[in-house]
Amino acid sequence: MTMLKVRDLNVHYGGIHALKGVSLDVPEGAVVTLIGANGAGKTTTLRAITGLAKPTKGRIEFNGHDITAASPHEIVRLGVSMAAEGRRIFYNLTVIENLMMGAYHRDDTAQVRKDVEWVTTLFPRLKERFGQKGGTLSGGEQQMLAVGRALMSRPKLLCLDEPSLGLAPMLVQEVFRVLSQIHEEGCTILLVEQNAKAALRIADYGYVLRGGTITMHGDGKELLADESVRQAYLGE
Amino acid sequence: MNAAVFFQQLINGMSLGSLYALLAIGYTMVYGILRFINFAHSDIFMVGAYSAFFFIVIFRIPWPLAAALAVCFTALVGMTIDRVAYRPVRDAPRISALITAVGVSSFIENLGLVTVGARPKAFESPKFMSRVFHIGPVSITGVAIWVPIITFMLLVVMMYIVYRTKIGMAMRSVSTDIEATRLMGVDVDKVISYTFALGSALAAAGGILWACKYPRITPLMGVYPGWKAFTAAVVGGIGSIPGAMIGGFIIGLIEVMTVAFFPDLSGYRDGVIFLVLVVFLLIRPTGILGETLKEKV
Question: Which of A100, A202, B105, B232 could connect to B39 by a Cys-Cys bridge, CB 3.0–4.6 Å?
Answer without folding.
Answer: B105
